[in-house]
Amino acid sequence: MNRGYELKKGVLVIDRELTDLDLFVKDFLEVLKKYSDYLIVSGFVSISTGRTRATEDVDILVPVLDKITFEGLFAKLKKHKFWCYQGDSSESVYEYVKNLQSIRFAKENQMFPNMEVIFITESKKAKHYEFTHPQKIKIKNFEFKIPPLEFEILYKEIILAGKKDLEDARHLRNVFQEILKEDKFKECEEIIRIELNLMKKQK
Amino acid sequence: MTQIIIKKIPKTDLDYVDLYAENLKTNPQLFEQQRMLINSQLKSSKSFFQNMFKGKDFKIEARKYLKQRELI
Q1: Taking the domains of chain B in order of start, what are their residue ranges?
Q2: Backbone φ, ψ for residue A67 (5° rounding)
Q3: Is the pLDDT of residue B7 over 80?
Q4: Which residues share a beta bridge with B69?
Q5: Could you write out the DSSP letters of every residue in A138-179?
Q6: Stated pTM of the model
Q7: Rounded distance, CA B64 to CA B55, Å?
Q8: A161 in reach of chain B (CB within 8 A)
Q9: pLDDT tens digits, B19-47
Q10: Are B7 and B22 within 8 A, CB to CB?
Q11: I want to staple B71 with a disulfide (CB 3.0 to 4.6 A). Which of A4, A28, A63, B66 is the partner?
Q12: Could you tell me which CATH number the domain at A5-148 has?
């Protein structure tokens, strides 16, 4: 592993020790996975692959949950000492879920980091695409799902396009240049361009 | 001591991103530095907010803080 990572049976294995941020995400996922599928997106993808920058939130896509499932998840997160920014009862917070508004969880007596849970439906085409084409990544005993690298790079370059996003994308392009695929870039770009056009029309 | 190999003089922030990423592939010590930085940031943040809301209900104060900054 002389480039910091290996691709083992489709899983991206990163050769480094876990950070406290990894442990926070791992703790959250251990609860979430019992209730729902998920996809970690955005800043944490770059940070987990070595980008050195600060972050306050970890974005995670989750399909919109029914009320009963959400109640179970909410109670279990509380039991694992997570608190929700938006409220203390699953009933009040579910209003956000059904309106597809994101909600955030941090550890008790802490503000940051937080998990920003972004609820998605199949109608969100780009998000649905990345969600259904996950890339597994593993750091020590911590395995989780991220978007295809090509999708993540282009989403940051084309849709988000802020300074931090362009730097994240550049980091990913550089670190993973040996495994990035041109045909995958083309496939992802088509979907992202459609999303961009939709966003322009909505403005 | 961590050794950084510089192939060209970085000028922009993106040049520094390139330089770091290039070195990351051959120098695992950079991952250790990154770990120390992230852990230190989280420790500072935890300590900052716990001091700010000391003796008060953390969640109530945290929500007031977040509302003031239009984060919720």
Answers
A1: 13-68
A2: -60, -40
A3: no
A4: none
A5: EETTEEEEE--HHHHHHIIIIII--HHHHHHHHHHHHHTTTT
A6: 0.94
A7: 15
A8: no
A9: 999 999 889 899 999 999 999 999 999 99
A10: yes
A11: B66
A12: 3.30.460
Q: Where are the domains of chain A?
A: 5-148
Q: Name chain A contacts of B17, Cβ cutoff 8 Å.
A: 51, 167, 170-171, 174
Question: Are A3 and B25 inside 8 Å of each other by CB?
Answer: yes
pLDDT band (50, 70, 90) for residue A1: low
Gap from A123 CA to chain B (nearest CA, Å): 25
Helix, strand and coil in chain A, % to nearest 5: 45, 20, 30
Q: With an 8 Å Cβ cutoff, are B42 and A83 in contact? A: no
Order of strands, sheet of A142-146, starting from the edge strand that comes earlier in the sequence: A5-8, A11-14, A135-139, A142-146
Q: Which residues in chain A have their CB less than 8 angstroms from residue B58's CB?
A: 108-109
> How close A182 comes to chain B (CA, Å)?
20
Task: Tell me if chain B has a CB within 8 Å of the CB of A47.
Answer: yes
